[in-house]
Design brief:
Length: 337
Amino acid sequence: IFVIGETSRAGNWGLYGYERNTTPKLDAMPDVIHFDDVLTQINATHKSVPLMLCPADALNYNEIYRQKSLISAFKQAGFHTSFLSNQLRNGSFTEFFADEADCTIYFAAPKNKPHLHDDVLLSAVDSLLNIGKTKQLIILHTYGSHFNYCERYDTDCRIFTPDHIKEIDHKNKQAMINAYDNSIVATDKFLAQVIDKLDRTGETSAMLYLSDHGEDLLDDERNRFLHASPIPTYYQLHIPFVIWFSDNYSTLFPDDIRQARNRHTTPFDSRVVFHTLLGIGGIETEYRDDRLSLISPSFHLEKRYYVGEQNIPIPVRRLPLEEEDLQAFERYGISPR
């Protein structure tokens, strides 16, 4: 199962050292591997997500117009493929790739109602895991921590209060952060439920999660908020990335687990998703590059890149980051390179 997160920044995850325990369930799972130093290739969903799904990346973005996705690769290898989305159709490459799947479902709230919570995807996961096909790729596109944050979770995840806001304003900053943190608690609960469902099958399985980009939350004197700004900030770049492997997988492929754990502190970016998932699925294709697979001993990534204007790749170290961002990178012990 590949879970695509939305607008979740690593700095607000307890798993990444945040002062609040926003990820208690994942923290309690020793089989969960989290990767400390992962950056998105771009801070906008309509480009970030498709780059996870296909072999195009920031270095060769325009290849996306000539590529199929990992969904087609899994289908050709005999997997039943599903794309379940808690987002609306939007005419992007994400939608184009999603339609390659054997089963594509979009969950939409009734008109004039708040967006559905991500747990709406779980019953569909149950159904898919019970169809009798052991070779499956399931992709879950969540709504995650998208604004308005206080609409992203149920009452049992309402840990930090007050948390109800109607607009982003400095006077509402603490309530805004509380609501955002609660949305991370909801993501933690959701991922734990996905892992539990996979674990209960007793099959050889894995779950990979990362967010498409992060978010600004009025973090400093610049008073920046949301994401998709022309020049990204540290808070939009640094994303959470976790992998879980079942006991069967660990028994059959212990070297894969060892390689992944060895990458725990290695700097990389979201381009590894496509190649790592193909590796986990055991799928051989000319488009798979083991130098970008976290489970391969050949893994080697010299530089990280960002998709600039006109889709021109920019080395992360050459982004015009401001002093506040450089200080944040240093504070979290990772390098903007």
